[in-house]
Amino acid sequence: MIFVSCDDIYYLEKQGRFVQIHTRNQKITIRETLKTFEERLKTGFFSLTQVLSDQHQAD
After folding, report:
1. Is the pLDDT of residue 1 over 80?
2. Has residue 1 been placed in a domain?
3. CA 22 → CA 10, 54, 56, 58, distances in Å?
4. What mean pLDDT is predicted for residues 40-48?
5. Given phi > 0 = left and psi -120 to 50 = alpha, else beta, which region is 7?
6. Phi/psi of residue 31, each to 5°?
7. How many H helices and E strands in the chain?
8. pLDDT at residue 53 is higher than 70
9. Total of domains in the chain
10. Which pLDDT score, from 0 to 100, does residue 45 have?
11. Torsion sign across C-alpha atoms 55, 52, 29, 12
């Protein structure tokens, strides 16, 4: 089990059925939902943003 301080988290990234936690020193991949993190971090600031990209337009 890994414990990560909220102060160390830069952002969370959804990757299919997994979430990547980007911190100051590492990237941790876990099988969890962003909704679960939103509920866990209710006491602090949490912004859930979805960015969609069209690969045809990006090329």
Report:
1. no
2. no
3. 6, 24, 27, 24
4. 60
5. alpha
6. -90, 95
7. 2, 3
8. no
9. 1
10. 53
11. positive
